[in-house]
Design goal:
two-stranded antiparallel ribbon, mainly alpha
């Protein structure tokens, strides 16, 4: 998302721990969903790779997209195991907290 004032992207930075937690939980979700997630798998994986790069940051619009993709991943399989919901919740809590600019607890 661009800041219209100066046309610069709005970056959201993640700690190493948060980036790894999101990546690990999301990767488990992707492995669980398998082929039922289809073509969205690659886009989700690309965003996770960007998050894990040295700066641990994503453009604001990519954080929103990642939340949506992870939701679609969970919805892609009608028999969600309770642990899947927990993995999804872990990801969304971190991503949402960062998106809202809330302080870490």
């Amino acid at each position: 998302m661009l800041n219209t004032e100066n046309s610069l992207p709005v970056w959201i930075f993640f700690s190493n721990v948060d980036a790894i937690t999101v990546n690990n939980s999301a990767s488990q979700l992707l492995a669980w969903s398998g082929e039922s997630f289809g073509r969205l798998f690659d886009r989700t994986q690309n965003l996770l790779n960007v998050l894990l790069d040295g700066d641990h940051r994503l453009v604001k619009e990519h954080v929103i997209e990642l939340i949506a993709l992870l939701g679609a991943c969970v919805a892609s399989n009608p028999t969600a195991h309770p642990s899947v919901r927990e993995l999804f919740t872990d990801c969304v809590m971190i991503l949402s907290r960062k998106l809202a600019g809330l302080p870490e607890e």
